[in-house]
Amino acid sequence: NIGIESFKTRCRQNGNKWSQNVLVLDIGGGTTDLALIELTLEDKTPFFTDHEDRGLGGRYYKLTPKLLGSSGHLQLGGELITLRIFRLLKVAISDFLLTAVTTGDIESDKLEDLINSELNDRFLEDGKFKTGSLLKCIDKENPEGDVAFKDALDTAEKVLPTRWQQATQRLQTFYTLWDHAEAAKLKLGQKPPADGSLLTFTLNEQQIGELLAQSAIKFQVRSSESISLTLDHQQFERAATSSIKEAIGIAKGLMESRLNSETNQKVDWLILSGKTCNFNLVQQQIYEEFSKSPYFVWNPERITFVLEFTKIATSAGACYAEKLRRFRFDPEESKNLLRKGANQLEIDVKNLFYYLPCNFKRKTQSNEPLAIFNAGQELYQLAPWDTVAKVRTPWQGIQLTNIIHRQDYENGTFRLWGSFDGKILMDKLGMEEQEFLKKIKIQFEIDQALQFSVLLCRGNPHYLIDVVGIDINSVISKSTENTLFTDGNLKWNIAIENHQHNLNDGDIAVNVLESATVDQPHAYHLVFAVDNNESKSMETFHYLQDGVKQPGTGLISKPLPSFPQSGQHTFYIYQTDSDTNTKKWLRIGTLSRPDIITDYPCQYHVTLDNTGILRMHAGAVPYWTSNNQECLEQEGCVYRAELELQPNEVDKERDPFCGIH
After folding, report:
1. Using one digit for the tens of pLDDT, what is the confidence trace for 5-20?
2. How far is residue 196's CA from residue 194's CA, in Å, rounded to a whole number?
3. Are 130 and 145 in contact (CB under 8 A)?
């Protein structure tokens, strides 16, 4: 009870709902993952009649998370920071050894030969190694942009070879140095001492000697007291800052692209996860970015990081939600517990899969990509048999090369997601390019797991009608205009929900009786409305019923409003009564919600064909399809193909274990 009430105090209230926006930033070992979630707590306490005892007044709540957006980077985490410390340490050791050889503290023929014959001039002064010249090329923020960066790494490789891709005997040296870099990261990433002294990490003579021995470099130490190497936390920060800024920059971009500052939308709670978030530098950078952001009111109490739970927080939360689900009652059945003052909580986790977390765009000739899916777009159960929620684009023109990019937020980077080769299809169909681009249409479909399908069709798609309906001809025959057609075309057109006052004979609607109430005189929902100005094209229907072999034509409605409690929509047609010569709604009949179980939001449509049959469909009206690609040679048949997914782009410069470092 206390936890729920505490949650409510940190939320914005709207009636019986309390909501807050949560940004989860997880900088893990190898990746950075982000999610922006809106949490809405709704009071669903069942109604108690006057004679029912309310008792101690417990409440029944429903918590619904909504994914506003997600982002991240597959090669941005603690390992990238370790790699940058690894490079720093490798170059620092090389600089130290070459200096020691120059000053005579160490004798090594191999290193002396390197100085005399192989060093780049930028690292020499009067024919001798210039102390610090290697280290300064890498000991700074964003050294990759400096032309000397590669020279410094290549020179360090000659001193301390760790690039094992072509020489696996160097693996031991690589992993020994990697362990030292990991230890340096963990120590130097801590909060500096209160007295202002520097945090340091030191490699002693034995550790340096072990690395040289593994590299088969013979050496002799003249002054053992001077053989040690120290890094401080300022060097650590210069090496790690760019990675941490990049991760926090992604979080900032996601936040600013999904929230609307004009409506005062803000992040109410920042949750940090992943052990990398324990670094003092991460907390400094979060303060620098978030304390001045209009999308976050800075308050340390609204930032949560619990180190001991970084690895198990997700699984522990899932287990807790599942426990609540298994022990919850239906709201009506929980009244006895509510009377005892015990709050009940229902968590609707499926809602997390109802919205797209990112944008998808299609490559064009220009620099302006074509948006096909937008972040926050709602997903639906398109067919009764689907086990995942999906959404489709409108039908659009095809390209010879169809390339799809993912973009997590506006102005964010584009990531190649997949492609479909239209030229291969064109060649298989034996079509000329101009004919192919003109006649073949493409539609993209995406599901909650971000899996793409490609739907292809010659011309406009045809639809498969596989349900029974009601006949409106009996109602039409009673009117003065007793036909469905004018000049061979159906008179009804698709309409959306609106508050029209000027109705026409032939308009079909639902919610007519509801609109008769005093407070909602125009609340009816037009399903098909007559358009006297133009005749809209009809869809082609194919039937599965016995004995119906010829295709028909008809209209498909926009999504219907929610079903009333009866589970039935009653349809009416607006006609002129021949007896009274007055306009009124005539009842056509009712259609029930299809008897299917949907795991996700489902839209319902009705079709009206040229024979006057009105039918109800769960999800999208199914296409007339074929599994044979040759079906594209005939008009209207839809063929389903898969988008050719692209492998994740691996940047070797960010991959610690590819063997080139």
Report:
1. 888 988 999 999 999 9
2. 5
3. no
Burial (CB count within 10 angstroms: exposed 0-12, middle 13-18, buried 19+), residue 590: middle
Q: Which residues pair with 575 in a beta bridge?
A: 584
Predicted confidence (pLDDT) at residue 576 exceeds the cutoff of 80: no
Q: Cα 129 from chain centroid? A: 52
pLDDT reading at 299 higher than 50:
yes
Residue 227 DSSP SS3: coil
pLDDT at 531: 62
- pLDDT tens digits, one per residue of 512-539: 655 554 344 455 788 887 664 445 578 9
Element (H, E) at 82: helix 78-103
658 contacts 652 by C-beta, under 8 angstroms: yes
Beta bridge partners of 512: none
pTM assigned to the model:
0.81
Domains observed in the chain: 2-76+259-352 (3.30.420.40), 78-242 (no CATH), 356-457 (no CATH), 463-622 (no CATH)
255: its two tokens? 């936040």
Residues 37, 66 contacting (CB under 8 angstroms): yes
- 616-621: Cβ within 8 A, 24+ apart: 616/467, 616/469, 616/569, 616/591, 616/592, 617/467, 618/381, 618/383, 618/384, 618/593, 618/594, 619/380, 619/381, 619/382, 619/383, 619/384, 619/386, 620/382, 620/383, 620/392, 621/463, 621/464, 621/465, 621/556
Residues 583, 574 contacting (CB under 8 angstroms):
yes
Q: Give the type of residue at 303.
A: I
How do residues 475-507 score in pLDDT, each as one tens digit?
Answer: 765 554 555 555 545 454 322 233 444 556 666
Rounded average pLDDT over 233-256: 93
